[in-house]
Design goal:
Elements: E1 12-26, E2 41-54, E3 57-70, E4 73-89, H1 93-122, H2 135-152, H3 154-159
Antiparallel strand pairs: 1-4, 2-3, 3-4
Helix pairs in contact: 1-2
Length: 162
C-alpha cells in the first residue's frame, strides 16, 4: 500500500530539453538603414503557450518578437521561439497551470533573451537589453482578465478553456 509520502508519489519537476524551435531575422532596408543616425523605436512582444506532449511531459514555448523602426522604415525584425520540454508529475491539477504559466517561462526567458540579443548583434546592430519579466504578475493579470470575461460572457469563456 502506498500513500502520498512514498517516493513514487513525490512531485517531479525537471527540465528535459531547452532548444530554439524557430528563429527569424529580417533587415529589410539594409544596407541604407545602417547609415541612419536616429534612434529607433523598439517594440517588444512576448507570448507563451504550453501543451501536453505525453503523460507527465509538457512543452512550453516562449516567443519574443522585437521590431525596431525609424519612422516607417524597419531597421530589423527578430522573432525567436524558445521551447522547453519539462517532466512534471504528481503535481495537483490546481498547481499545474501556475507551473506552466510562471515557472516554465521564467526558466526559458534568459535563453530567449540571449538568442534574440545574439541575432541582433550578428545582424550588425547594437544589442537590445531586455528588462526582466515578472511572469507571475502576467499570469495573475491573465487569470483576472479570464475571470472577468467569464462573468461578461460565460458561453465565450467555455470556448477558450484549456
Amino acid at each position: 500500500m502506498t500513500d502520498a509520502t512514498t517516493p513514487e508519489n513525490q512531485p517531479v519537476y525537471s527540465i528535459e530539453k531547452i532548444y530554439v524551435k524557430d528563429l527569424s531575422l529580417e533587415v529589410p532596408n539594409a544596407p541604407q538603414i545602417f547609415l541612419e543616425r536616429e534612434a529607433p523605436q523598439v517594440d517588444v512582444q512576448l507570448h507563451h503557450v504550453s501543451s501536453k506532449v505525453d503523460e507527465g511531459v509538457f512543452q512550453t514555448e516562449l516567443t519574443l518578437t522585437i521590431t525596431a523602426k525609424i519612422g516607417e522604415k524597419t531597421m530589423f525584425l527578430v522573432e525567436a521561439n524558445q521551447a522547453g520540454i519539462f517532466a512534471i508529475r504528481n503535481v495537483p491539477e490546481a498547481d499545474l497551470d501556475p507551473v506552466l504559466g510562471i515557472s516554465n517561462p521564467n526558466i526559458l526567458y534568459p535563453y530567449v533573451r540571449e538568442t534574440v540579443s545574439d541575432a541582433i548583434v550578428r545582424a550588425g546592430f547594437p544589442p537590445v537589453l531586455l528588462n526582466p519579466v515578472n511572469f507571475e504578475a502576467l499570469y495573475q493579470a491573465q487569470k483576472q482578465h479570464d475571470s472577468q470575461q467569464a462573468v461578461v460572457d460565460p458561453a465565450a469563456a467555455q470556448l477558450v478553456t484549456h
